[in-house]
Prior knowledge:
The chain is of the alpha/beta class. It has 9 helices and 20 strands. It has helices at residues 15-26, 60-78, 97-113, 122-128, 150-161, 204-210, 242-248, 285-298, 344-360, and strands spanning 3-5, 8-11, 31-35, 50-51, 90-94, 118-120, 138-142, 146-147, 164-167, 171-177, 180-186, 190-192, 196-198, 218-227, 237-240, 255-262, 268-274, 307-317, 324-327, 334-338. The protein has an 8-stranded mixed sheet. A 6-stranded mixed sheet has the order 9-3-2-13-20-19, with helices on both faces. Strand 11 (180-186) and strand 12 (190-192) form a beta hairpin. Helix 1 packs parallel to helix 5, helix 1 packs parallel to helix 9 and helix 2 (60-78) packs across helix 9 (344-360). The longest helix is centred in the N-terminal third of the chain and has 19 residues, at 60-78. The chain is globular, with a radius of gyration of 21 Å.
Amino acid sequence: MPRHSQDVVIIGAGVVGAACAYYAGRAGLTVAVVDRGPVAGGTTGAGEGNLLVSDKGAGAELDLALWSAELWRELAEVLPERIEYEAKGGLVVAPDETTLKALRTFADGQRAAGVHAVEVGPGELRELEPHLAPGPAGGFHYPQDAQVQPAQAAARLLAASGAEVYLGEEVTGLLLERGTVRGVATGRRELRAPAVVNAAGTWGGRIAELAGVELPVLPRRGFVLVTEPLPRVVRHKVYAADYIADVASGSAAMQSSAVVEGTPSGPVLIGATRERVGFDRSLSVEALRRLAAQAAALFPVLADVRVLRAYHGFRPYLPDHLPAIGADPRVPGLLHACGHEGAGIGLAPATGQLIAAALTCAETPLDPHPFRPDRFGPDGSGPDGSGQDRSGRDGSGPDGIGRDGSGQDRSGRDPFGPDRFGPEAGR
């Protein structure tokens, strides 16, 4: 079996693995990247490309997102235009005064961390988004929110890293010497290195098991609808306030909230659903119906638009909603960069910087301690054993922003029936 030697082997060719390779290469390390599929063949390829600060409350993840937002702006200057970086900003819509009041409190905490959050009234909402449905009490504009084409971003980061890339090769084992990781084995070769980075996304827990440790990564399924190409009817990333609660939730049940955005190529992307159903790839008509109804309630102009296809992916979920980033003290030579759930594209550059710093013993502007991979209890619970999310609430999101527990949209309307989806739905 061929043997190759590098400074670091990265498992996973999604955007997080690509960012780790990019920044490790910039730090002067030789890098190999291995993936059982193609570049961006997992969660990255099924993502919308969101680079968000608007949906994160004050805390460690928001700090990581703000740092990443700066790094994405820098990357947009050096990577090809095909990554489609778009600093279009985000718009969070509040349907009533109670929700708007809760958003104000949420935004106050964000501003203290460095987020630009601007409250806008009903009239200003319509100026920012002329096709928005009438009726919302107001909302908040987040100029720092942006978007990229995720598969292109991963591919271009990887190409710029200078790494040796091995695709279509599943890691079947970790090379261990006296309890220390010294590389990986695939069905075709051994890749030796004094450090291995687990950037395997939803399969991150399986890689950890190969080293004899537990990392409680679970898949969280989500669907996205793609419309026919349109003029720019949606200018920003626009979502209903209850999306924030869905992101923070630890519920396994299906949740959906309207998230609508245009793309440079014309189609409108409509999300987002979340549910823990393992790796079940079956089509959920109920999920598609909810998405369509909620999008049309937010933007009535979409009610007569054709949906060309639907797709889904699996977000790598950890119980406290924070990724695992850094060296694993339980197994020397093993590092983790996974568990970002639906924020991996946005958080990828800062994650790559933290991994590169860990590999080279460099200083970083961010404390990596909240992301330590060994913070989970033996039963997979969070650091305090509660299994709750990072806010201390059990999935309710910011006070006053959330649901009645049904997971249903507020409109109650169903303008899109399941028969609106063509033969490509679910591809």
